[in-house]
C-alpha cells in the first residue's frame, strides 16, 4: 500500500470533529454534575442520586481518556506527516498505523461511555416509574 502526505491529512477533520463532540459531552456532564451536587447537598441519603454520581464519575474519566487518546491520535498524524515529508515511508506507515489504533481505542472508549450513559438514563426512568406506580 502506498501512503502519501494526503493519507494522514484525511484524518484531521474526523479527529477534530470527534474531539469537539467529546468536549461537548464533557461540558454537558459537567453541568449535570453541578446540578446533582446541589441536590446531593439537600438530600445526601438519596440512593438513586448516589448511583447517578458514581455513574458520572466513571463517564468523566472515560471522556478524559477518550480525549487524551484522540489527541494522541491527532499528534501521531502530524508526526506521520513530518516523517513522510522526510521521505521515510516505512516509518510513516508505522506511525500512521499507531494513529489509527489510537483512534479505534478512542472510539471504543466512546462506546463504553455511551453504554454507561444509557444505564444512567434507565436508572432515572426507573426512578420516575417507581414514583408514578401506585
Please give a structural write-up:
It is a single chain. Helices cover 89% and strands 0% of the residues. It has one domain (6-124). It is elongated and about 70 Å long. The protein is mainly α. The mean pLDDT is 85. The protein is built from four helices and no strands. Helix 2 packs antiparallel against helix 3 and helix 3 (47-85) runs antiparallel to helix 4 (89-132). It has helices at 6-9, 11-42, 47-85, 89-132.
Task: Reconstruct the topology from this structure.
Blueprint (H helix, E strand, L loop, with lengths): L5 H4 L1 H32 L4 H39 L3 H44 L2
Helix pairs in contact: 2-3, 3-4
Order of helices and strands: HHHH
| Unreliable segments of 5+ consecutive residues | none
- Counting DSSP H or I runs of 4 or more residues, the number of helices is 4
Averaging pLDDT over every residue, what do you get?
Answer: 85
Structural category: mainly alpha
> Radius of gyration, rounded?
20 Å
Main sheet makeup: none
Q: What multimeric state do the chains show? A: single chain
User: In one word, what is the shape?
Assistant: elongated
Distance between the termini: 66 Å
How many domains would you count in the coordinates?
1
Residues in helix, %: over 70%
Tally of strands: 0
Strand content: under 5%
Amino acid at each position: 500500500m502506498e501512503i502519501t502526505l494526503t493519507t494522514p491529512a484525511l484524518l484531521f477533520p474526523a479527529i477534530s470533529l470527534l474531539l469537539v463532540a467529546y468536549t461537548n459531552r464533557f461540558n454537558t456532564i459537567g453541568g449535570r454534575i453541578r446540578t446533582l451536587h446541589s441536590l446531593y447537598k439537600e438530600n445526601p441519603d438519596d440512593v438513586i442520586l448516589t448511583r447517578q454520581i458514581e455513574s458520572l464519575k466513571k463517564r468523566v474519566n472515560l471522556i478524559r481518556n477518550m480525549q487524551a487518546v484522540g489527541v494522541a491520535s491527532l499528534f501521531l498524524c502530524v508526526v506521520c506527516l513530518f516523517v513522510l515529508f522526510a521521505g521515510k515511508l516505512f516509518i510513516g506507515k508505522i506511525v500512521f498505523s499507531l494513529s489509527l489504533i489510537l483512534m479505534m481505542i478512542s472510539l471504543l472508549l466512546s462506546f463504553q461511555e455511551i453504554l454507561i450513559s444509557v444505564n444512567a438514563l434507565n436508572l432515572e426512568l426507573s426512578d420516575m416509574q417507581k414514583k408514578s406506580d401506585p
